[in-house]
């Protein structure tokens, strides 16, 4: 049975509209495999060049932009919000870049106290202005949690987006499209709902398509935390830098190591969960992404110069099970653990 037929078997078994995967082997992206339809019960098959929503896989890209500014001497991991953004309220002035990258800055909510996510969709104007306004309103509240305690929060990475915009004078989106992505030769990417691969909710165990023309994503101002969509082969170009850190050119070796090493007693840093797996030769990086209508996951084994990436255009338990199984297919094919 071919890998594509195995992938199709997984897609059908778990009732997914589409499922795609790609591996990085010896530091190089391999051929993309995709099966299924762009839209549940639709007529257009998903293609290898179609973009999938990456959700919180976006965070590693935002962290990389921070890393590039570190390499340029614009800031350090110990730089504080008070130093970088003078308007920062006193309760947050001592917050460091390091605690934001590690989800230990005392943040939990994305929206100001008393507001909901819909409120953030109502912001208008240039995105840099939206983010600056959101920053002022959000940090008018006191910390939600004890600083130094791990609490996953999109708000921390949105703040990192405000930092990179302030230090460069350019929108976060432009820093990706004309900076990092161009540097890596990444094409076909964008922000928000993917243009042709429909997103789906799962209701009563059945996919429900969501029109991409609607506000079917996180608010635009939260982009640095999770609004990127990319074809899987293009996403692999980015992840390949982490799979083969000795040969990547987007960060200095020192900064790459600093962003992929556990800090402050936790397991999270730089958009990655840092853990260990035997098949990876020890330390590995992983992260999942979802905007509640898509799901994807990445596993990276730098000691093996290997990565496995999977995405689907629906969310739910079956989506995560299928993605985990597809990761296993690639690990067995390329690393042959136990052989």
TrEMBL record:
This is CubicO group peptidase (Beta-lactamase class C family). PANTHER family: D-ALANYL-D-ALANINE-CARBOXYPEPTIDASE/ENDOPEPTIDASE AMPH, PENICILLIN-BINDING PROTEIN 4. It comes from Armatimonas rosea. It is found in: Membrane. The keyword Lipid biosynthesis does not apply. Residues 6-320 form the Beta-lactamase-related domain. Keywords: Membrane. The keyword Cell inner membrane does not apply.
